[in-house]
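Standup notes
- DV: blocked on the single-chain target, sequence here:
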Amino acid sequence: MSTIAVTMGDPSGIGPEIVVAALAANPELLPRVVIFGDRGLLAREGLPAAAEVVEITRLASDEAIPGHPSP
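- DV (later): unblocked, structure below
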C-alpha cells in the first residue's frame, strides 16, 4: 500500500478545511495519508487525532485566520 503525501496549503486559505473534509469523507485513507502542515490549525478544523502530520509550522490561533492573508 502506497503512502499519500498532502500539503495543507496556505494556512489562511481553504486547504486545511479541504484536507480535513477529504479525510472525513474517506476515512479508509487515514492510515495511508501523511499531511505536511500545522497540526494545531488542522485540529481546529476537526482533523482526527490519528492523522499523521509532519509539522512544518506551529501557528498561534491569531496567526492564521481563514480568509485573512498575512505577510
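- Follow-up: DSSP finds two helices and three strands in the chain.
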